[in-house]
Amino acid sequence: MSSLLTSEFLAALLSGAVIAGAPLLFAALGETVSEQGGVLNIGLEGMMLFGAYGGFVVAHWTGSSWIGFLAAIVAGLLVALLMVVFCVRMGRDQIVVGIAILLAVEGLTSLLHAAQFGTSYPRLGAVPTVRVPWLADVPVVGPSLFGQPAIVYIGIALVVVVWWVLSRTNPGLHLRAAGWKPAALDNAGVDVLRVRTVAVLVTGALAGLGGGYMAIVVAGVFVPFMTGGMGFIAIVIAMLGRGRPLWVAVGAFLFGIALSSATSLQLAGVNVPTDVVQMLPFVTVILALIIFARQSYLPSALATPYVRGRR
Amino acid sequence: MSEPETRVASPPPAASVKVLSGVWRGLGPIVYALVAGGVLLLLMGRDPIGFYATTIESGLLSQTGLEQSIIRMAPLLLMSAGLIVAFQAGLWNIGGDGQFLIAAAVVAGLGAPLVGVLPYSLALALLCVIGFVAGAAWTIVPSVLKAWYGVNEIITTLMVGFIGIRLANLLIKGPFLSDRSLVPQTDVIPFKYLLPYLPGTRIHLGIVVALAVLAAVHYMQTRTSYGLSLRMLGASPKAAAHAGLDVKRDIVTAFGLSGGLIGLAAAVEVLGVWGYVRADWNPAFGLTLFALVFLARLNVKLVIPLVGFFAVLSIGGHEAARRAGLPNDFLLLLIGLILFFMVFTEWARTKGWTAGMRLRAAGRTSQREAALDE
After folding, report:
1. Number of structural domains found in chain B
2. How far apart, in whole angstroms, are the C-alpha atoms of residue B138 and residue A286?
3. ipTM surpasses 0.95
4. Which one of A256, B40, B139, B186 is least enclosed by Cβ atoms within 10 Å?
5. pLDDT digits (tens, 9 = 90+) for B12-31
């Protein structure tokens, strides 16, 4: 067991956690925004997948990871637009539309990928990493946490931004009101549908970026179905974070550790089945729910379309 | 014509028109989605008409294709029945794939030792019960959390579903691992112990089981007090509690029945088609069936033709995609599009400008004109 505490193991675990946790962080921050606004975004996985596809294709064409990230954001926005039109504007069922989004994006990206690349899987070059001065020189922790691609630091900055907007600004207040008491917000003269529209679009942009990160930074390729449930994990993280971005970040990091520990454990010579490791985060959450589930975790108007005058 | 006295001020639309608009309500989204999918195929340089023709030909018109489609319908119908039970009670059971795989792993793992010991039909019946129980057991955590603590079941079923998918793999690679195969899988149940064929065909008994179960579910929902209390629960949990229903019991039993039927679907698929389960096998019927069940508006009678349509699409579409050099996932896109068009036409109906409405309006005016002519 002493081999578990070697610096190689810790370094591999930490950097793996950041790599696997960053897309979760983007998507879960996005989901936090839309959940606080009262829209349960089951289509998150679809937004991530389309972001991954769009990001990869554009990064492949242009050779620039930054333009790729922008394209991923646009791709996520496009999918989010469907959610806006159907759920926010037409007031249709959020779960049905979310599942429609996921199925359609899975089919579409797989088809487009096959039509463009056939069965060849072109690779992108590695994304350059940025070393944070001083901090990156700290042994073990330094290189794994502070020698990441710049987009990771943007993700960490976004945690602060989302926290600040949600808890310290008027738009944040409107957003939370749209999730907890939309009628009150309407009475105060704020357009609930507009607030929710912006919320869903922000979610789409962040989820698309998370997907783009998976394709451009982590994998370097696009593979159909590559998001593999990450969107759903992000929904869970957002739900457990209960609208507090800092907890969302902690959750994303912990899930990142769980997802990457299989590889790190193998590096340390401990052979735990992948199935067990990938099950652990969900088992933990379910246990937490069983032990602590005594109160509501979610905004009261979540998943209910807002129609003026209807109770 | 023989009794003009029964005429009322505003005559209701003719029955035939009503049926037509009802049919269009279900069929419209499918037609729109097929057209949209066809346009996409055209853009990709494929021949959409040829694609759909191959689908119909090898999924419906050829002998083996038709048999394959009917065989595929059995687990799909049983799983739909399970989803309908939960959705009608207002419970979002989204973890169906986990329930399916747990049951499949248990049935395949226990199947090989059991069939040798017990008499043929007893073994099959027992394995179906085992599948049902395994699927039902996999809903206990979400249903108890929902019933006692009000924890949102969308998330819990999803998470427990993920755990189920992994646990099924662990079971297959652990206690149920076959030592006679190079790839991780369960022991194979010998062919002679699998579900019997219907006379004169190569279709196993599963489809009969599925139709019987659907009929029973329909009866339960429309003719029993339990069915009524589930529908009340779905319409308004508060009203159900106020009316004195045991809401907690209803949540737990409805969830159990839902998971049980999904487990039965897995048992029928394993005992009818495969005889074993391989690690990482996941047909992932859950989300697509979710779509179909919604398109059928949770109506058991409508689910049967829709599942039939889907079975033909998935069997025939496989061949069509292979010939067109496309991945099989075109089907997912079609199902997603169908859902979108369904959602859209429903919204359009609330705005009063759909084909169905126009049809009905046309029916009314023509009737009125006919009445004036008399």
Report:
1. 1
2. 13
3. no
4. B40
5. 556 677 677 767 777 888 89
